[in-house]
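Hi W., the nicotinamide-adenine-dinucleotide complex you wanted:
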Amino acid sequence: MYSLKGKVAVVTGAGSGIGRALAQLLAAKGCTLALADINEVGLKETAASLPTPPLLQKLDVADRDAVYAFATRVKNELGTAHIVINNAGVAVSQTVADLSYEDFEWIMGINFWGVVYGTKAFLPMLTAQDDGVIVNLSSVFGIIAVPTQSSYNAAKFAVRGFTESLRHELDGTGVSAISVHPGGIKTNIAAASRFYVDPSGVSSRENAAAGFAKMAKTTPEQAAQTIVDGIERGSKRVLIGADAKLIDIIQRLMPVNYWKPMSALMRSMRK
Ligand SMILES: NC(=O)c1ccc[n+]([C@@H]2O[C@H](COP(=O)([O-])OP(=O)(O)OC[C@H]3O[C@@H](n4cnc5c(N)ncnc54)[C@H](O)[C@@H]3O)[C@@H](O)[C@H]2O)c1
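Structure:
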């Protein structure tokens, strides 16, 4: 068991959803927290819900220099980092044909490069002390691909490949890397997305967010608990929710043709 008590934990995207629930659970486990988000209001709300004031940083994870400056600040003020959870993320729903490069670069900047910067900026502290865990948020959409999610899929498949490669590099050391693959989690992600169109032909953000709210069965608190259990147990990959476990099985059984049963499943879950 990896003990979290007295460890320094860094969480990006801590102003909402899974990141906020992670901050609350890690605080309860006895971690000292460094929390970052682009949304300062959400970040302060998270801080107010904690028993001890954390280190807070307004941060755009897509800004490489800012992420490295954040890592330096964590080292200067808290001494080091042990757990780094690259959680900040956004969504875009658009077909490949109509997807703008601006939206594609926006999501890759946050969901992929943000994870790379967060990993590389903090990794030297973890390897120097030969103790730590990098936790990178991929998705079930890093396991299967879905129409209108090409940019999100590209980022989340990339996070999975990046994290698994790092994991192998770290084999035999005191540092590990975990890729996390949540199914539908009841958070603000769909409502905050750049939404144009979804696979069922829904063309309004409100309808899509309502559909997502029906489909997402897991709470952020349950997601945080599963991630923290994974850190403590030394898991290599964490699947969150019954939907993620089912999707993982369908992908293994039908590695090429999974979309037919998957689309039927997603339609029934929306009802
Ligand atoms: N909710 C789901 O169903 C689900 C499923 C699979 C994976 N995920 C992943 O889980 C992670 C957390 O998402 P969530 O569901 O809690 O969503 P959320 O929208 O509730 O929280 C995401 C947080 O990231 C922050 N953020 C956005 N852009 C940022 C930037 N440039 N720099 C720093 N912070 C930024 C937002 O302000 C927000 O506080 C994301 O990586 C997401 O892709 C979520």
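The mean pLDDT is 96.

W.
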